[in-house]
Amino acid sequence: MLFYIHTEPNGLWQGEPILTIAQAYGVADKIILPSQYSMVCGLISPDLMNQLYNAADVFILLSRGEGFGLPIVEAQSAGLPAIVTDFSASAELVETGWKVPWVPYMFMPGTVQAIAIPPQAKLALEAAYQRQQTGDDEALRQATRQWALRYDADQVMATYWEPALARINQELALSGAEDSTAEPESPSSQRPSSAAETEDQPVLAEVSYG
């Protein structure tokens, strides 16, 4: 078994010291890392990422929380089943893979994230391996890709954005029509009726020089 880990391996970006952990467990020789320069500078092309996804048996992203989780969708779009933390956006994005239970983690007061339970992650990996060994992997990959395609940009635009924008335009048009039928206030109703009412009001004057 090999692990391709697409990350910074020393914990510099609030991550974990992957290499230190791997050495402690005696699996450092099982890890493949990308060129850090290429990754940081954005030199790893979409074509290469697609090849990596297709070469793998399972995608693992046991993060503490995701705003969306684009790599999860990318991997599944290539037909790669995913193992994720059953928390935040990750739980929504995975249907055909495995969701790992978690324990709460508070990195600052009032903010909760999730730490995946390691033995449960191990069970998910074993289940993915068994699917591959029994020949069910291809069917799972096809189902995974079909699930991910619902997040295709064109489909999201047609299914969600265009109806929403049409509804907003309709509401704006109705609001504009209502405003145009309202009677404007007369000039006299906008002026104070007595000198007493003008005592505290500023006086604006136009001054010309010449």
Summarize the model shown.
The protein has helices at residues 18-24, 36-40, 46-55, 70-77, 88-93, 118-133, 137-148, 153-181, 187-190, and strands at residues 3-4, 31-32, 59-61, 82-85, 98-100, 102-108, 111-116. By secondary structure, the protein is α/β, with parallel strands linked by helices.
Topology:
Layout lengths: L2 E2 L13 H7 L6 E2 L3 H5 L5 H10 L3 E3 L8 H8 L4 E4 L2 H6 L4 E3 L1 E7 L2 E6 L1 H16 L3 H12 L4 H29 L5 H4 L20
Parallel strand pairs: 1-2, 3-4, 4-5
Antiparallel strand pairs: 6-7
Helix pairs in contact: 4-7
SSE topology string: EHEHHEHEHEEEHHHH
Q: Which word captures the global form?
A: elongated
Largest beta-sheet details: 3 strands, parallel
CATH architecture descriptor name of the domain at 45-156? 3-Layer(aba) Sandwich
Radius of gyration from the alpha-carbon trace, in angstroms: 29 Å
Strand line-up of the largest beta sheet: 3-4-5
How far apart lie the N and C ends?
Answer: 89 Å
Total helical elements: 9
Unreliable segments of 5+ consecutive residues: 201-210
Describe the model.
- The chain has a three-stranded parallel sheet, sandwiched between helices. Strands 1-2 form a two-stranded parallel sheet.
- The protein is built from nine helices and seven strands, in the order βαβααβαβαβββαααα.
- It is elongated and about 85 Å long.
- With 210 residues, it is of the alpha/beta class.
- The chain has a domain at 45-156: Glycogen Phosphorylase B (Rossmann fold, 3-Layer(aba) Sandwich).
- Mean pLDDT is 88; it is low at 201-210.
- 46% of the residues lie in helices and 13% in strands.
- The termini are far apart.
